[in-house]
Amino acid sequence: MSMTGNLRKVGSLRGVGSLRKVARLTRRRPRVDLSHPVRSPLGSAVVNCVTYHDGVRGPGGRELVDAVERVRKTGDGFVWLGLHEPTELQFAGVAELFELHPLAVEDAVHAHQRPKVERYGDTLFAVFKTVCYVEHGELTATSEVVDTGELMVFVGHDFVITVRHGRHGSLGPVREALEADPQQLAKGPAAVLHAVADQVADDYLQVTDAMQADIDQVESDVFAEGGARVDAGRIYQLKRELLELKRAVVPLNRPLHILATQPMRTVAPEIQAYFRDVSDHLLRAAEQIAAFDELLNSILQAHLAQVTVAQNEDMRKITAWAAVIAVPTMVCGLYGMNFDHMPELRWTYGYPLVLTVIAGICLSLHRGFRRNGWL
Is the pTM of this model over 0.90? Predict the structure, then answer.
């Protein structure tokens, strides 16, 4: 049976008119396994498409429309569709099938959104910023420390759609952990949303812990001997990367608080308790980021103070040597004038005497500057 035929079968579920666009997009496409990312009729954007009933994974090899039809006919379970950077054309059929709001669809396709949680009727739309610590041998003024991506989650009564943007943030481990706990997975799509949010919050904590080592290294270098020669660009780079992490973490505080406290149709009360735990993890990450920011500000101020002190020391040394050199310059300049009547001008021992006086004054100045710490 063709995929268009499957659309006619589920016409009674959503109405034939609402699925016409899906039929047009899928016409003349072969019936294939949607779980295979290369052979998928939606293109390589599809990562996986699986049904779950009572927390147990259903058989594979089903198309999206067949999976939705089976779930809605039985009134039990849900469909989890995973996508990676889909195009508008690839996502259009999914949007029609699940009646997703156009604004949410636009955000999911184009990405670059602020972390948020929005409700569109009976559908919940969440946006998370995923983060990853970039390993580097030595921190420089251009080192990339934090790499970010985006993860969008659509949650309905009988479906979960995850849309991932970026090179990291794979949900494979999340799916495996949920499938290993059927009791939690049986709580429905909201359990998947919680697992995704929990994984994102844990990644935040892992990145902050990894950045702690970079900050400690910079702090040690600044307060070590010769710390004034440390490149200030390293500190600014850490602050820029920390700001990137802050933009991912801080805006998510209020949405998670709403999920944990306000009643919602798609989030059962027993799941809200789990969101409170995620909110606590997020708060811990936000506090660490704030502490790191204050610490970097202090390190930067200390470094600038060290640079100022080093410059003052250099200026004192230059001034002291200039004063020492000024004595012979003055005496030589004085005796270089063309006058016949000058003290000791015709005396045999005049030249050695002048040299002795110059050396004595210069040594006295040098000793005085050394005693005062200028040299």
Answer: no
